[in-house]
TrEMBL record:
<dbReference type="Pfam" id="PF01261">
    <property type="entry name" value="AP_endonuc_2"/>
</dbReference>
<dbReference type="InterPro" id="IPR013022">
    <property type="entry name" value="Xyl_isomerase-like_TIM-brl"/>
</dbReference>
<dbReference type="InterPro" id="IPR036237">
    <property type="entry name" value="Xyl_isomerase-like_sf"/>
</dbReference>
<feature type="domain" description="Xylose isomerase-like TIM barrel">
    <location>
        <begin position="4"/>
        <end position="71"/>
    </location>
</feature>
<protein>
    <submittedName>
        <fullName>Myo-inositol catabolism protein IolH</fullName>
    </submittedName>
</protein>
């Protein structure tokens, strides 16, 4: 992930923050479809901590490229499928993202 951030450098100005699961884990059985081998795609936007993203690497990578030091950058929460608890999830995302940015930001 940080390799991609480094390659993008100053061109990376907008990040959507959502967790997702690594479909290669659990012997490739994270998602069970019937019949097996379906040509389906799974697209997830989970709250931070519900998936497999390494958030220290993510927020640290943004710090490394100076994302937090520029005035032209935007970070947005991008969690879907949580309609019943949307307010709580939004509050959680804001708090968690703010905590991570504060930990890695040089400002």
């Amino acid at each position: 992930m940080t390799e991609i951030m480094r390659a993008a450098g100053d061109k990376l100005r907008l990040v959507h923050v959502a967790d997702t699961m690594d479909h290669h884990r659990s012997h490739g059985l994270r998602y069970i479809t019937n019949p097996p081998g379906n040509p389906v795609r799974v697209h997830q936007h989970l709250k931070i901590g519900d998936g497999d993203i390494n958030w220290d690497e993510f927020f640290g990578g943004l710090a490394e490229i100076g994302f937090y030091d520029r005035d032209d950058t935007v970070m947005v929460s991008s969690v879907f499928a949580e309609d019943e608890t949307a307010h709580d999830v939004s509050t959680y995302q804001l708090t968690t993202m703010t905590d991570h940015v504060s930990r890695y930001s040089r400002r």
